[in-house]
Amino acid sequence: MGPHEPLSRRGFARIAALAGALPVPVLTERALAQLSYPGEAPPDAVLLNANENPLGPCPEALEAMNAMLRRGGRYQFGETLRLARTAARLEQVPETHVQSFAGSSDPLHRTVLAFCGPGRAFVTADPGYEAGERAAAFVRAPVHRVPLTQDHAHDVEAMLRAAGREAGVFYVCNPNNPTGTLTPRAAIEHLVREKPPGSVVLIDEAYIHYCEAPSCMDMVREGRDVVLLRTFSKIYGMAGLRAGLAFARPDLLDRIRPYGTGFLPVTGMAGAIASLEAKGVVEQRREYVRKIREELFAWLREKQIDFVPSVSNKVMIRTPKPGREITAAMAARKVIIGRSWPSWPNHVRVTIGTPEEMQKFRAAFSEVVSS
Asked: Among 3, 67, 258, 286, which is most exposed with the fewest C-beta within 10 angstroms?
């Protein structure tokens, strides 16, 4: 069947059979976030389940997006290119090494689809952000889940051993989701240096702005076998507006481009550009979250509640009973918290909210764990 021929009944059957052979749908970031509360939350509920930023977009982004609404009748493809150029200038990488996306989950999935498959494994931390492994299952790639180290970092030596020579993608979320913990730069360097030829290291820096750890952007500048992701969903407060970036060598970006369209929300592009250009947004919001996070940690220590110290905008808290039961009990009190992971069934992930939201969390959590 040629590219311009109508789809025949037989051609449709072939496509349907192929789709039916793929065992697991590729879940998006939004779908994963909904796992902790699949319904519609009450309007007065406290939402601490999806690692969102309750501050929302910065004033500069709001102004830019409002102005863009009047031009919404046009596709405005230039804004997509302008976001990539702005990011390239600020990160000091060539413009050919960056591409705009609607959030970072899109290029995450594309990278897995491009580099994984039968005999080309996806290797990830456990617990870790699950979107990549679900995309790997979609293309029938082996999935290796490697437990974190005692310091809650990615165990890169174990990841290398698990994959052997069949690796397609090594996924490193740094800081990690859900634990909010860091993997040392030297460990990531070792992984990039020792990985099998033909594989890539997918470095997800969705939460890098919440801490002062060094980025791996220099690996992109050096042309290493890495794809680095950034998003505007977290510290920039644009989760629902969808804007993100992928940084990599041009040949690696060329590998992931065929797995989707180039149509991006122009409001998201305008807000992202304004967010990058705004002065002090990252520093101010980092300090805002740090202060609230440390207040929560002090309260948890006072109550002798075990938790994993985080440098991000979420924390894993150990619970006295299965985390699913805690999540349900909290939801009944209109405080929606994050889910548990199969490997850590007695932990729940809690997003850092506003001081008022965290006060409601503490009150509800005290009731739940003491009942």
From this structure: 3
Residue with tokens 């979320």: 173
Q: Is the peptide bond preceding residue 175 cis, with omega within 30 degrees of 0?
A: yes
What's the CA gap between 154 and 114, in Å, rounded? 23
For 215, which DSSP code? P
3-state secondary structure of 146: strand
Domain ranges of the chain: 29-51+281-370, 59-277
Bridge partner residues of 318 (DSSP): 347
Q: Are 326 and 339 in contact (CB under 8 A)?
A: no
Q: Is the pTM of this model over 0.85?
A: yes
DSSP class of residue 175 equals S
Sign of the C-alpha dihedral computed for residues 182, 185, 190 and 195 taken in this order: positive
Distance CA 288, CA 43 (A): 25
CA-nearest of 244, 196, 201, 243 to 222 is 201
Residue 135 to residue 168: CA distance in whole angstroms: 13
Q: What angle do CA 363, 369, 371 make, to 5 degrees?
A: 100
Partners of 203 in the β-ladder: 172, 228
Task: Please report the DSSP string for 47-79 in residue order.
Answer: EESS---TT-S-HHHHHHHHHHHTTTTS--HHH
Max Cα separation, the chain? 69
pLDDT in tens, the chain (371 residues): 433 334 344 443 333 333 333 333 455 555 555 555 567 888 899 999 999 999 999 999 999 999 999 999 999 999 999 999 999 999 999 999 999 999 999 999 999 999 999 999 999 999 999 999 999 999 999 999 999 999 999 999 999 999 988 999 999 999 999 999 999 999 999 999 999 999 999 999 999 999 999 999 999 999 999 999 999 999 999 999 999 999 999 999 999 999 988 789 999 999 999 999 999 999 999 999 999 999 999 999 999 999 999 999 999 999 999 999 999 999 999 999 999 999 999 999 999 999 999 999 999 999 999 98
CATH class of the domain comprising 29-51+281-370: alpha beta
Q: Are 326 and 369 in contact (CB under 8 A)?
A: yes
May I ask the CATH architecture of the domain 59-277?
Answer: 3-Layer(aba) Sandwich (3.40)
DSSP secondary structure letter of residue 97: G
